[in-house]
Amino acid sequence: MGFIHSAETEIMHNNVLINVHMTHASATLGVKRYFYSSSACVYRDMKPGEPEMTEEQAIPAHPDNEYGWEKFYSERVAMAYGRRYGMAVRIARFQNCYGPEGTWHGGREKAPAAMCRKVAAAKDGDTIEIWGDGSAVRSYTYVDDMVDGIRRLMDSGMEGPVNIGCPQYYTVKELVDVVAAVARKRISTRSIPGPVGVMSRNFSNSKIYSIGWQSRFDLKDGIALTYPWIAKQVRKALKAGESL
Fold it and tell me: Which residues are catalytic?
């Protein structure tokens, strides 16, 4: 969220150029099947517990940040090129992805990786900082589930955007609790000002379910696989005197 809110021009400029050039090059070179990775950020701000939105309910569009607007526009570009050039376009709208080998520091990491890093660097009984009051709700998708969803989507005949996300919703504070339990540490949180983003994004997975995909990793299972890898990176960084 920090990067999304601090780098609006970079996101709008760089991401649009990447996606427009990739789509144009793929279509004009005769690529038969094209995958575009979109985001749940195309959806509006929602209240926790609000009925889940289908892919079609993203219109009328009202994303809360420029990243969401860019993703929505790039979806339309991909679909337009698909129609013009007869290219089979598959679009996935992701919830937050996490897992080992992912970005874990520097400002572009997702919340699960950031919390794993903070807890790994903390001592038992310490307090870590979170942006906002910790009540914002998110869904987190383990990387193996996401790759499986992409593969199934690409092998399918399903056109238009398709949501792919774990159907569990956690507050930021609950995420910290899960990470702390895996780390076997007692961790408290302190709220500080910072970009929180939307309160919730609840979306339906009915389309991806219809082609046989189901999330196999709940948050506790995914964090149990992710935290040890990030903790190892934290130990290496601290040993080398690097700042986290």
Answer: 67
